[in-house]
């Protein structure tokens, strides 16, 4: 019975997708709004491991965890690239009504976005204020880490902590992790740090990776494990924070809600001909932010996000059909090239805005403060009762199109705790020698 219902909704979805796709012509799509989330650029290790031969800060070009000149160049280049991409959407002169910039409250993300904005908004015309300086100040907003649930995703949320603990104590989770016990014991022995979870492996992996970038010779003990055996569990660490629908909802809901609310605002003010709504939102953050967003959307490909990795959320308007679409692209390289257009699960590369909102209802209808305070909430369902704002507003605004959508909630595929990825062979005593 359930199968049959699912099958029917599947057929309906496919039909809807094909109907819309026939109407989409890319030359007909106009970009109306973009939200850009990126990782900072090249940096030094945040904290080398205790036995690290390169733990003396004076061996590095800048203090630990800081953005390097390479990182500044990477973001300056990305800013120039964003200028090219959005030259028809935002004016060449800085206009505070068109753009909003937010960063986590960390030196390297603040500095990255400043370098980026230097590339995006070189002064022109009236904004030139010093002939010697190809730069103008652009406001960057931030929020203390422990009060920021939107971008830092670090504000205290008891319900989240409980759900994460439950996950980490689950048999599937501990079983999968135990396959790395040999690796973790080996790393614990050689690094002097207690390595007991994916995040800890990732921390060592990341430090070793940076040391290779800076041409430091890695100690001999790393040869049997770095990079191959450590890569998979390191990158797997990026899945855990959003592993279940509830974790994803509490972690990423506020950010997706903010972006989609801005999109909704744009769909309401366009195509009336004139819009005061913000056109470009820039979010400067971390690898974990990028991974959390991709994973919560069911789009994480399993690779650790690189420096300057960028997710582009774009709202497109079709003049032919007078409909709005969402396109999500991912730039997972530091050089300059066209980003990958990602497939939105159950929808495609260009997804009707209304369907997008339905697909991601789990992230969008969250009442974060209320749900975080609850010690134990039934997953999904109940939150509907408390959700205010966004869905109701969207429902009214798009009632007609909404009615065409399938009634069932579509479940986005999250990674299974037991993925079929290759587990490295356990490291034997013999290999340690
Ligand atoms: C770090 O290196 C500098 C320069 O070689 C040296 O003066 C300093 O004593 C070292 N610090 C430590 C803690 O080893
Ligand atoms: C590391 O070595 C490579 C190859 O010699 C060089 O291109 C690169 O600039 C070096 N990196 C640093 C940070 O010195
Ligand atoms: C590391 O291994 C290389 C080659 O096997 C050897 O020449 C070198 O002496 C070793 N270094 C240390 C510190 O053991
Ligand atoms: C929607 O746009 C209007 C007009 O620019 C603005 O005043 C309002 O704050 C925007 N709302 C959101 C949620 O962005
Ligand atoms: C970059 O992202 C695309 C889309 O997720 C993926 O197919 C590709 O393998 C990624 N490349 C790297 C080097 O991570």
TrEMBL record:
Full protein name:
Uncharacterized protein
From what organism does this protein derive?
Choristoneura fumiferana (Spruce budworm moth)
């Amino acid at each position: 019975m359930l199968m049959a219902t699912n099958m029917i909704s599947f057929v309906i979805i496919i039909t809807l997708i094909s109907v819309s796709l026939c109407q989409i012509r890319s030359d007909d799509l106009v970009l109306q709004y973009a939200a850009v989330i990126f990782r900072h650029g090249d940096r030094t290790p945040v904290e080398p491991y205790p036995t690290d031969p390169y733990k003396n800060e004076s061996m590095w070009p800048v203090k630990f965890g800081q953005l390097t000149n390479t990182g500044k160049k990477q973001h300056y280049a990305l800013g120039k690239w964003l200028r090219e991409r959005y030259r028809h959407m935002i004016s060449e002169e800085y206009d505070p009504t068109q753009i909003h910039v937010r960063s986590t409250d960390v030196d390297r993300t603040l500095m990255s976005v400043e370098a980026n904005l230097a590339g995006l908004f070189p002064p022109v015309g009236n904004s030139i204020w010093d002939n010697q300086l190809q730069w103008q100040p652009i406001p960057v907003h931030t929020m203390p880490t422990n009060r920021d649930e939107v971008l830092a995703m670090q504000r205290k949320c008891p319900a989240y902590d409980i759900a994460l603990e439950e996950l980490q104590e689950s048999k599937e989770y501990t079983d999968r992790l135990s396959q790395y016990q040999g690796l973790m014991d080996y790393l614990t022995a050689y690094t002097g740090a207690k390595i007991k979870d994916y995040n800890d492996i990732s921390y060592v992996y990341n430090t070793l990776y940076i040391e290779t970038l800076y041409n430091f010779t890695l100690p001999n003990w790393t040869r049997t494990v770095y990079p191959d055996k450590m890569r998979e569990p390191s990158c797997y660490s990026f899945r855990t924070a959003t592993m279940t629908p509830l974790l994803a909802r509490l972690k990423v809901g506020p950010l997706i809600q903010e972006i989609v609310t801005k999109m909704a605002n744009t769909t309401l003010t366009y195509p009336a001909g004139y819009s005061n709504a913000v056109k470009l939102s820039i979010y400067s953050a971390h690898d974990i932010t990028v991974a959390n967003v991709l994973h919560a959307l069911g789009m994480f490909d399993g690779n650790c996000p690189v420096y300057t990795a960028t997710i582009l959320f774009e709202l497109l308007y079709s003049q032919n059909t007078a409909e709005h679409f969402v396109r999500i692209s991912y730039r997972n390289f530091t050089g300059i090239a066209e980003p990958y257009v990602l497939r939105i699960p159950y929808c495609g590369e260009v997804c009707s805005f209304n369907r997008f909102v339905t697909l991601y209802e789990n992230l969008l209808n969250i009442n974060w403060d209320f749900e975080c305070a609850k010690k134990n909430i039934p997953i999904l369902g109940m939150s509907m009762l408390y959700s205010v704002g966004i869905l109701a507003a969207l429902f009214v605004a798009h009632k007609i199109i909404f009615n065409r959508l399938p009634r069932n909630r579509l479940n986005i595929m999250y990674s299974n705790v037991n993925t079929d990825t290759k587990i490295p062979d356990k490291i034997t005593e013999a290999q340690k020698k």
